[in-house]
C-alpha cells in the first residue's frame, strides 16, 4: 500500500510503502527536499525471513539520521555508492529541480523497499576451489568481492549464495561432520580469466515471490531462487558436464523441496566460453526444479525465463506499473517499445476489466523474450478482448512505423536511453504523421511485411487480419510515457524532445528502484505540442473567434 505525504511546493512528494508483513517506521511525516531534512519520513517495509540477515525492525530501529544501509561490504563492493538516507537518493534533489524548471512542480518520489529489494542478481565467481569468491567486481577492476551479507539482495539470494559456497552438512559421514562448500566438495574450480580455465564463471539468482500456496503477506519473504550457473563449456555434452550436474544436484538436494527450507526454485545452466565480458552465452539448459518461473506484477502473472530481461526490483516495478495505469485511458492503442517480454503492455491490457478494444503492440530486440510473452499472454484474464502483438525488431530501424496507429507510446529503454533515430522521429512527429496519412507511405508497408509474430490474446479471436491495426488507425501518439533507469540519458532525451516543441512534459514520478545507488527510475508523461503557454494563447484566440461568430 502506498501512503501519500503531501508536500509544499516546490518540494517533491515522497510516497512510501507500508508492508503487508512486518513494517518499520522511520519517523517523520511530511517530506520536502528544500531545505534538506535530516530525518527519514518513511514508513518502510522490511522483508524478514528465517534466513534473513536484514536488521530486525524490533531490535534495529532506523536511526534519526535517516535510513542507513549498514552493510559490511560497503567499502569494498561497487554495488552501492551511498550508505545513508537510502530513502532519499542523491539524485532526488537534482531531479526535483530539473522537473520544476520544466513546469512539473508536483514530482513525486516513491521510496519503495530500502533493503532486501534486489530480486535478480548477476554475480561473478572467481578465486579458487578452496576459497571461492562470489560477488561483484571491485570498482574499476576484475577483482571479485565476496558479498555474503549484501543488504540489497533479497535474503533468499544471500541464502542461495551461502548454499553455493558453504553448503549444509553434505557427505558429513565422509568428512567427519565438517561443513564443506558445495564448490569445494565437488572440486569445481571457479573461472580464471587469465588462464581461461575453470568451470563456474557467473551465477544469476532470480527470486520469485509469487507462491500462491502461501498467504500473500508471507510471499515476499519466502521467495525462491532460480539459479542459473554460467558454465565455461560449449554445451552439456562437454567433459565437465558431470561436475555441473553434481553441483546442480547438490543445490537441489540441499535447497529443494525435500530440504528443511525450500529455497531453490530451479537450477539452469548457461554455456559460455567467450573471452569477452558478456555474461551469458546463447545456450541454456534447464537442469532441475520447475521450468516455469512466474512473478506477479502490474496485476498480471508474468513468465520470466532466465534468458529474458527481468526488473531487479520487483516490488518497485509493481508500484511503477500501478502508477502507469492511471495515464492510459480506456480504449487506447498502445505501443510498448523496448518491451522485453511485454510486461508493461500486457499489464496495461489487463489493468481494468472493462478495458476493451485496447490494442497493444510490443517491440523487443531480444528474441528470447518471445517465449515469455507467449506464456504470459496465456495467463491473461479471459475478459481481455484486446489485440495484442509482440514483434522481434530493432526499434532504431524505421522507428516511425512503430509509432503509427498508437494513441500512447511507452518507452522503457536500457540505461543509454532512446536510440537517436527514435528521438529524431519523435522530434519530427508532425511530419511523420503527415506522411503516415499518405496511403502509399513506403515506411508503412515495409514494416507491415516484417511482422513475424502477431499473437492474439485469445485463441478464438485469432484472425489473419486483412486490415492491420496500422491501416485502421494512422494517427501517431498524442502521449509519450517514458520509463527511464538512466538519469543522464533521460535528461538529454527529455531536453531534445522539449526543444523540438513537438512535446511538453506534464507529469513526472520517481521510484527508488536501486536504493544505495545514484540511480532512480523515472516515469515521465509527455503530451504532444509545445505546452501550456502556447495552448493558453490558442484557447484565447478560439474564444474570441467564438464570440465573433
Ligand atoms: C530496461 S529493459 C525494459 C524491458 C521491459 N520493458 C520490462 O520492463 O521488462 C530494456 C529492453 O530493451 C531491449 N532493447 C534494447 N535495445 C533495443 C532496440 N534497439 N530495439 C528493441 N529493443 C531493445 C532490451 O533487450 C531490453 O529487453
UniProtKB/TrEMBL annotation:
Belongs to the class I-like SAM-binding methyltransferase superfamily. RNA M5U methyltransferase family. Transmembrane segments: none annotated. It comes from the Eukaryota. One of its GO terms (molecular function) is RNA methyltransferase activity. PANTHER family: BNAA06G32370D PROTEIN, S-ADENOSYL-L-METHIONINE-DEPENDENT METHYLTRANSFERASES SUPERFAMILY PROTEIN. S-adenosyl-L-methionine binds at residues 311, 338, 364, 412. Keywords: Methyltransferase, S-adenosyl-L-methionine, Transferase. InterPro entries: RNA_M5U_MTase, SAM-dependent_MTases_sf, U5_MeTrfase_fam. Residues 534-549 have a biased composition (Basic residues). This is Methyltransferase small domain-containing protein. Residues 30-59, 530-549 are annotated as: Disordered. The keyword Cytoplasm does not apply. GO terms for biological process: methylation; RNA processing. The active site is at residue 485.
Amino acid at each position: 500500500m502506498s501512503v501519500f505525504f503531501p508536500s509544499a511546493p516546490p518540494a517533491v512528494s515522497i510516497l512510501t510503502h507500508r508492508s503487508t508483513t512486518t513494517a518499520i517506521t522511520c519517523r517523520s511525516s511530511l517530506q520536502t527536499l528544500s531545505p534538506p531534512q535530516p530525518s527519514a519520513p518513511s514508513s518502510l517495509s522490511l522483508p524478514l525471513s528465517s534466513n534473513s540477515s536484514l536488521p530486525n525492525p524490533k531490535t534495529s530501529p532506523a536511526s534519526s539520521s535517516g535510513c542507513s544501509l549498514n552493510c559490511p561490504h560497503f567499502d569494498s563492493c561497487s554495488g552501492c555508492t551511498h550508505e545513508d538516507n537510502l530513502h532519499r537518493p542523491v539524485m532526488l534533489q537534482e531531479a526535483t529541480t530539473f522537473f520544476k524548471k520544466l513546469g512539473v512542480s508536483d514530482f513525486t518520489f516513491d521510496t519503495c523497499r530500502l533493503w532486501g529489494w534486489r530480486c535478480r542478481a548477476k554475480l561473478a565467481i572467481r578465486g579458487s576451489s578452496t576459497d571461492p569468491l562470489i560477488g561483484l567486481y571491485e570498482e574499476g577492476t576484475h577483482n571479485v568481492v565476496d558479498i555474503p551479507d549484501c543488504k540489497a539482495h533479497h535474503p533468499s539470494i544471500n541464502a542461495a549464495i551461502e548454499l553455493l559456497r558453504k553448503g549444509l552438512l553434505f557427505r558429513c559421514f565422509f568428512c567427519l561432520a565438517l561443513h564443506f562448500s558445495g564448490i569445494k566438495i565437488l572440486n569445481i574450480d571457479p573461472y580464471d580469466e587469465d588462464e581461461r580455465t575453470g568451470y563456474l564463471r557467473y551465477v544469476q539468482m532470480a527470486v520469485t515471490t509469487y507462491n500462491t500456496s502461501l498467504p500473500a503477506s508471507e510471499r515476499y519473504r519466502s521467495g525462491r531462487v532460480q539459479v542459473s550457473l554460467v558454465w565455461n563449456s560449449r554445451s552439456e555434452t562437454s567433459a565437465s558436464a558431470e561436475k555441473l550436474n553434481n553441483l546442480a544436484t547438490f543445490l537441489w538436494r540441499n535447497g529443494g523441496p525435500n530440504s528443511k527450507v525450500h529455497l531453490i526454485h530451479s537450477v539452469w545452466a548457461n554455456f559460455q566460453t567467450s573471452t569477452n565480458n558478456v555474461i551469458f552465452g546463447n545456450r541454456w539448459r534447464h537442469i532441475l526444479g520447475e521450468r516455469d518461473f512466474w512473478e506477479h506484477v502490474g496485476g498480471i502473472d508474468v513468465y520470466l525465463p532466465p534468458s529474458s530481461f527481468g526488473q531487479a526490483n520487483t516490488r518497485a516495478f509493481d508500484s511503477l506499473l500501478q502508477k502507469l495505469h492511471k495515464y492510459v485511458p480506456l480504449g487506447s492503442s498502445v505501443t510498448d517499445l523496448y518491451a522485453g517480454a511485454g510486461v508493461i503492455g500486457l499489464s496495461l491490457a489487463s489493468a481494468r476489466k472493462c478495458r476493451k478494444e485496447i490494442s497493444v503492440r510490443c517491440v523487443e530486440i531480444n528474441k528470447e523474450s518471445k517465449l515469455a510473452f507467449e506464456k504470459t499472454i496465456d495467463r491473461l484474464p479471459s475478459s481481455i478482448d484486446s489485440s495484442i502483438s509482440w514483434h522481434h525488431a530493432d526499434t532504431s530501424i524505421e522507428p516511425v512505423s512503430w509509432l503509427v496507429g498508437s494513441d500512447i507510446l511507452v518507452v522503457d529503454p536500457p540505461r543509454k536511453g532512446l536510440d537517436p533515430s527514435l528521438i529524431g522521429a519523435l522530434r519530427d512527429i508532425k511530419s511523420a504523421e503527415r506522411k503516415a496519412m499518405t496511403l502509399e507511405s513506403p515506411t508503412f508497408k515495409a514494416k507491415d511485411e516484417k511482422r513475424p509474430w502477431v499473437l492474439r490474446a485469445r485463441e478464438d479471436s485469432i484472425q489473419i487480419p486483412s486490415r492491420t491495426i496500422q491501416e485502421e488507425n494512422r494517427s501517431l501518439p498524442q502521449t509519450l510515457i517514458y520509463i527511464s533507469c538512466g538519469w543522464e540519458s533521460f535528461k538529454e532525451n527529455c531536453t531534445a524532445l522539449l526543444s523540438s516543441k513537438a512535446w511538453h512534459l506534464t507529469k513526472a514520478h520517481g521510484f527508488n528502484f536501486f536504493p544505495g545507488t545514484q540511480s532512480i527510475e523515472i516515469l515521465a508523461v509527455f503530451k504532444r505540442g509545445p505546452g501550456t503557454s502556447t495552448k493558453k494563447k490558442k484557447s484565447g484566440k478560439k474564444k474570441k473567434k467564438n464570440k465573433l461568430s
